[in-house]
């Protein structure tokens, strides 16, 4: 018995498949690009001009449309997302939309008051020094801070922190004046202390139960005589 191998050709009704010659591109590329090797995409670096909005802070993100990677073969590029990190400033310290700046003043300015020039984001300005200002005391300049997006308020504030510079050395006349000032200060403290003690003694005497008893008896006697006279 003889065995035969039969090969049949079967025709399938309308059917589509990827062309084995052009691989579905519709054209045959005879010479491939040596840069992209036929992918249509190459790696590289390009500069993008970006506008930084006012008032941004570290951690904010800026989106640049169609500045990202391309999908190749004529497709649109993706978006570029830039994560911001704000560098520290040598003059201003920042807290949100508010800024802080130090103002160095002399100890005589701290006692007598006056004016001092301080920098702001829009230029220099004069700030009043309150009489008797303390080290680290703050003065606020409304609306002199950074831009911010909020209801009715579009800018933060600037805070001026006073730093008092004390002299390292003084002459004899200055020393004598300070000694006289110190003596008057001690006398004023003693007067205030004595006045406080007087009020304290009066308060203790009025709240003494024996005083309250005597005062009550006196009021009863006055009421009795008042009724008798009527």
UniProtKB/TrEMBL annotation:
GO terms for biological process: protein refolding. Keywords: Metal-binding, Repeat, Signal, Zinc, Zinc-finger. It comes from the Eukaryota. Pfam families: DnaJ_C. One of its GO terms (molecular function) is unfolded protein binding. InterPro entries: DnaJ_C, HSP40/DnaJ_pept-bd, HSP_DnaJ_Cys-rich_dom, HSP_DnaJ_Cys-rich_dom_sf. Residues 1-18 form the signal peptide. One of its GO terms (cellular component) is cytoplasm. Residues 44-167 form the Chaperone DnaJ C-terminal domain. This is Chaperone DnaJ C-terminal domain-containing protein.
């Amino acid at each position: 018995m003889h065995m035969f191998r039969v090969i049949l050709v079967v025709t399938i009704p309308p059917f589509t498949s990827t062309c084995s010659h052009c691989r579905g591109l519709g054209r045959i590329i005879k010479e491939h690009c040596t840069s992209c090797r036929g992918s249509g995409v190459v790696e590289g670096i390009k500069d993008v001009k970006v506008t930084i909005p006012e008032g941004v802070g570290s951690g904010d993100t800026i989106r640049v449309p169609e500045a990202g990677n391309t999908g190749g073969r004529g497709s649109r590029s993706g978006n570029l997302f830039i994560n911001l990190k704000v560098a520290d400033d040598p003059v201003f310290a920042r807290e949100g939309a508010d800024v802080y700046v130090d103002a160095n003043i002399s100890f005589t300015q701290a006692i007598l008051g006056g004016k001092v020039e301080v920098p702001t984001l829009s230029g220099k300005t004069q700030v009043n020094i309150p009489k008797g200002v303390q080290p680290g005391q703050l003065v606020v300049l409304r609306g002199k801070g950074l831009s911010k997006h909020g209801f009715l308020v579009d800018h933060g504030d600037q805070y001026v922190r006073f730093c008092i510079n004390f002299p390292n050395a003084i002459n004899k006349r200055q020393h004598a004046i300070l000694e006289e000032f110190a003596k008057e200060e001690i006398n004023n403290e003693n007067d205030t202390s004595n006045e406080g003690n007087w009020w304290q003694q009066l308060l203790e005497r009025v709240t003494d139960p024996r005083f309250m008893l005597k005062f009550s008896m006196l009021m009863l006697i006055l009421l009795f005589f008042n009724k008798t006279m009527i």
